[in-house]
Amino acid sequence: MNDGDDNCKRRRKERFADEDFNDMNESSNDENSVLMSTHKRKTRTMLGFYDSVASASVNQTETQSPNHDKQSGLGRSWWDECNRPDYPEDEFKKVFRMSKSTFELICFELSSEGDASTLRNAISVKQRVAVCVWRLATGEPLRLVSKRFGLGISACRESVLEVCSAICSVLMPKYIGWPDVKSLRKIKEEFEVISWIPNVVGSMYTTHVPITPPKTCVAAYFNKRQTERNRKTSYSVTVQGVVDPRGVFTDVCIGWPGSMNDNQVLEKSALYQKANGGLLNGVWVVGSWGYPLMDWVLVPYRQHSLTWTQHGFNEKIGEIQRVAKEAFGRLKGRWRCLLTRTDVKLPDLAVVVGACCVLHNICEMKGEGFDPDLRSEFFDDDDDDDDDDEMVPDVDLRSVSSMEARDAIAHNLLHHAI
């Protein structure tokens, strides 16, 4: 073969190669958008496949435990049973601490505000609220909640936190707030009927919610009194609340470390700042032994040797205090997650406790009865009235006028009794 033929063949090969390369580039450019859309379709298909696998896994787990539903009513069928229109009202209330109508109201208000759109779309609003309410009501571990509702543990954890956040952002402004002038007038009248003490607008109490030891600032959350009482190291956060005569919260302060006493928590609260701004001029919030006597905080006499006048005053003020403590008793009785050490992370705890307070108010406002069987004894720092360490001395007075005003009230109570 001569050189001319070789050159001719070489040129033909190069031409064909160039044409193939150009065809490939054109084909590649034309298919870019197709490949992208195909990738998206495949991604959606695979996500759907994974969802199906996850769902099948739950069903398989339930199938592999033949006595699962029979023994404890767990799994998806349990929630489906509770969600039936003909499910008995009394059974529903026993499970969720509220009537069907109140439960439906909560679901509707959360849905209508649009906050539910941020939650997991694969789970209905009603089921997410049910998971949250059940978890708060029982304090049941997430692994058991997961089995009961036929959902993954992570899905249950997300549902609880997201619903609690929605309750605090959407419902708290509506259901927890300082009363207006008209409501305050009624509150004062009702407290005066209870105690004969005029101008009382609230009963204040501080309780503790036990927690696991935090990773930082451990000493701040150490609860000395609970540790001594239970003979077991205890950590907690505080919850300060003011209630009206019905036991409805009008103000809450949540999350300060458990080593702080009632006086310290009060000074950190928004209520204290509002009072300094004049919100509580001329009225009283009744507190316990742990609070200081101030122009707007009325507390019992703490001397061990009381006059008859002072003793009578303490009895009457104790009736007002009892309103707040019983309200906290119902709060912890309904939402038993507040009674035991929680596995909720400390940054999320205020939202969870806040949601419990909102749900408490909804139940109280809607006339949901409280099951006496749910009542549980709990002890806080101010329950030991003879402990001088936890009482604020009378010498820690914020004004002489407050002491004179208390003496005048005590004197009037004595003459009223006579």
TrEMBL record:
UniProtKB keywords: Hydrolase, Metal-binding, Nuclease, Nucleus
Gene Ontology MF terms: hydrolase activity; metal ion binding; nuclease activity
Chain residue ranges for the region called Disordered: 1-35
Spans traversing the lipid bilayer: none
Compartmental location: Nucleus
Low complexity bias spans: 24-33
Chain ranges of the DDE Tnp4 domain: 205-361
GO cellular component, one term: nucleus
Names of required cofactors: a divalent metal cation
InterPro entries: HARBI1-like (IPR045249), HARBI1_dom (IPR027806)
Record-stated family: Belongs to the HARBI1 family.
Annotated protein name in UniProt: DDE Tnp4 domain-containing protein
Organism: Gossypium anomalum
